[in-house]
TrEMBL record:
GO terms for molecular function: phosphoglycolate phosphatase activity. It comes from the Bacteria. GO terms for biological process: DNA repair. SUPFAM superfamilies: HAD-like. Keywords: Hydrolase. This is HAD family hydrolase. It holds the Pfam family Hydrolase. GO terms for cellular component: cytosol.
Amino acid sequence: MRVPETGPVPLEDALADHTAVVFDLDGVLVDSNELKVDCVRDALAVFGPELVDPFVDEFRRTFGRTRREHFLAFHRDYLGGRNTGRDEDFEPFYARYAGDYAALLGERYAKAPLCAHADRLVPALAARGVPLYVATGTLTPEAERLLGWHGLLDAFRGVLGGEEPKARRLSGVVAGTGAAPHRTVLLGDSRQDLLAAGAAGTAFVLVTGYGFFPPGEILGGPGGPAGKEVAVAAGLDPRGLVTGAVVAQGPGQAGPVNAEPRSAP
């Protein structure tokens, strides 16, 4: 999503100009990133900190992948499993330890509070008739329960969970609307969200405040759509002003194109 040449605009107005608005869940709607880190660390604790600690660092860097992708990475890269994810060793590993993770998440997820202003922005967009979706690495039933606990589930036309990669979920939303991909926008807080939007061809808003890494690291990492302008929002305040930044070629600070995000009067 490009910031107009006239300057920053309020987040609600910028989003309402799209055919569909897709929210990431963790770190955008719900303050649950660190809760998930604790769950994955506890689920894998039996393997010891010498393996689990570096994997937790990777979990943070690749936050937003599907659950299967995360556990496959641990099995393959830290336990020496084969790389297909379909061998006879991985499936029982996944059933046990991803099951333990899901159980811990089930116990703790309800304690995660909404991110600031989520309870204002989502109803405001729904009231304007904007089609809203959630695309998340969290499994669909878990995400629906969490949104239901917070009273937001009915605002969304679809909750698209981590049974499929996020880029595929975005492509499904685009296909369902029949509009050009750039008319759909994803709000995310991670490098994986940026990459998913790039793969699906949708617009992207980087939401700051709850993610693991600062904007420069998210927008300056390898493999992204270098030179593309994306929008940046300091949280979900509907009147907060959306600014812009350019995705860098590689690691380093992405270049700002407008002033820092701030609240509109």
